[in-house]
Input
Amino acid sequence: MCGIVGILGREPVAPSLIEALRRLEYRGYDSAGVATLEDGRLTRQRASGKLRNLEEKLAGAPLKGTIGIGHTRWATHGRPNEINAHPHANENVAVVHNGIIENFRELREELTKKGHVFVTQTDSEAVAHLVADFMREGATPQTAVASTLTRLKGAFALVFLFDGQDDLLIGARRGSPLAVGFGDGGAYLGSDALALAPFAREITYLEEDDWVVLTREKATFHNAAGNIVERPKRPLQAGSLMVDKGHFRHYMAKEMHEQPEVVGRTLAHYLDLASGTVRLPFELGFDAKALSRVTISACGTAFYAGLLARYWLERFARLSVDIDIASEFRYRESPLPEKGLMIVVSQSGETADTLAALRYARLQGQHILSIVNVETSTIARESDTVAHTLAGPEIGVASTKAFTCQLAVFACLALALGKARGVLSEKQERALVAELIATPGLMAEVLKDEARVEPVARDVARATSVLYLGRGPSYPLALEGALKLKELSYIHAEGYAAGELKHGPIALIDFAMPVIVLAPHDASLEKTVSNLQEVAARGGHLILVGPQSAKTAAAVELAGFIEMPETAAGPFAALVYALPAQLLAYHVAVFMGKDVDQPRNLAKSVTVE
Ligand code: G6P
Output
C-alpha cells in the first residue's frame, strides 16, 4: 500500500505535496518523491527512506512548479531505493501508483521490444511507458490514459502528470482508493480523505474503474466505458479522522471494498512479487522438515480461516493439521507433539479463549506462530513469531478484510512450508504464487458487480432459514457465509459440506429455504453440480455462486445466480469467493434495516470466556 497525491495549485505545490504525503506516511515510508512542471517541463525529486530525506533534498533544490504529484512508497516490486521511488517518468509523462500491476512483465517485454528503456525494477514504470507509447502514436493525454487502462490487470490507483500540460492531472482507480478534492488553493487528488483534509472543503471518491480529468476549475469523471458520469461531492471535515467511513454507508461496506488493496498489501509482505516467489519477512524459527503436525486454534471467523488453511497446509506442505475452536481446544488437554507448531489466529489479538489456547500450547513446548491484525496485542506479544495481517483497523463487528488477509497469510505460509519441506518445486511455487497475485484483481472485479447481489439479497431476506453448501476449501467458506448471515440479519443459517447433504440436511429442502451453493471452478465442481441437481430434484430454492460454466453444467432452475469470474485463483478461489458471501449477508441486513456495523449482542473483541 502506498500513498499518492496530486495538486493543481496557484503557488508552488511542493510544500503542500509534502504535507499531504506526511498524512499518508502511514501507508508506507520506504521512499518518497514528487514531480512538478517547471516552465512546462517535468522535473522530479526522489529519495529513499522516510519523507524527511525527500524534504532535505527539496530544501537544497526546491521544485517551483504550481502543479505536481507525490508518492510515499511501500515497496512491492523492487528494492526500496531511489531508482525505484515514484514518480516514474519519461519525456511525456510522470506517474504515481498504488497497488499491483499484475501483467507488468508482459508489458515490459512488449514495450522493451518497441524501444522503451526500463530503468527500475518496479511494476509501475510499465504504466509510464505504456502511456508514452500511446502518446508517441498521436494519442492525447486523455486517450492515452483511457487506452492504457484497458491494458492493465490488477488492483491499483494512478495519478498522471504530463509534460507541457500545466492545467491537467488524470487519476484512475481500480481496486485501490482515490479521491478528488476542491479548495481555495486549487484542485487535488489523493489516496484518502486524510491526505486532502488540510486543503479541500469537498471531496468526491472515484468509483470502481473510474478515471478523472482534473483541471484547476473542473473534475470530469469517466466510467470504464469512457462515458462522462456524475459523482457526488461530500463535505470534508478538516482534521478528518484516519478511520472514517469514506463515502460508504457502513464501516463494513468500506472494509469489504478495501479488500483488493489490503490483501494485495498483505501478499506483497509475504511474497517477492518481482520474482513471483514466496519470501516470508521472518525466519521460521523451527525445523520445518522435522514437523509432523500443525495445531491451529481460533474463534469465530478467524477459526474458519484456519479451517480453510488446513486444505492448503495439507496439500502444499504435506502437513497434517489438527484444528479446533479455542474454547474447546483449551480444555481438551490435547497431547501436542514435541517441538510442534501451534498457529493461533486472531484479528484483535485479544480474544480470551484464543489466548488461553496459546498459553496451553506454550506449556506443551510448542513454537507459537500467531496470525494477528493488531501487532501490539497480547497474543502477538506472547508469540514466538508474529505473522501480521496488513488489513488496517477493522471497525465493523463482522470480520471481512481481516478474514481475507488471514487467508492470504495462510496461503503464503503453506507455500513457504511446502518449499522448506522440499514438497513444492520451484515451478509449482511460481505457478501458485501467480494464482495468489491474481486475487486482488479478481476481488476488485467481484466488488464492481456488487449490484448483482442485491436481488438475491432481497430474496434471501424473506427466508427464516438458509443453508450454505460447499466442498473442499468452499466448505469452511459455507460455514463463514452462514455465520455472516446470522450475525448480521439474525436469520438462522447453517453451513454444510456439500457431500454431507444427503446425510441429514436434505430433509430440510423445500421451496422456501434458500440453499446457497458456493461452486468455484475447481476439481470438485462436478460433484458440487450433482448436489445442485439433488436439491433441484426436490424442488429446492437454489442460489448458485459460481461461474457461468457451473450454471450451464447444472442445467437446473435457479432462484438466484451470483456470477463469478470463470477462472478465480485456482486453489485460492476462497479469497475471491469470500466476497459474495460477505456481500450477500451485508445486503440482506441492509435490506432488513439491521444495524450492520454493530449487530445485537455481539462484540468485536471478546475478552471474556
Ligand atoms: C467475535 C467477532 C468475530 C471474530 C471473533 C474472533 O466473535 O464478532 O468477528 O471473528 O470474535 O475474534 P478475533 O479478534 O480473535 O479474530
About this structure: The chain has 20 helices and 27 strands.
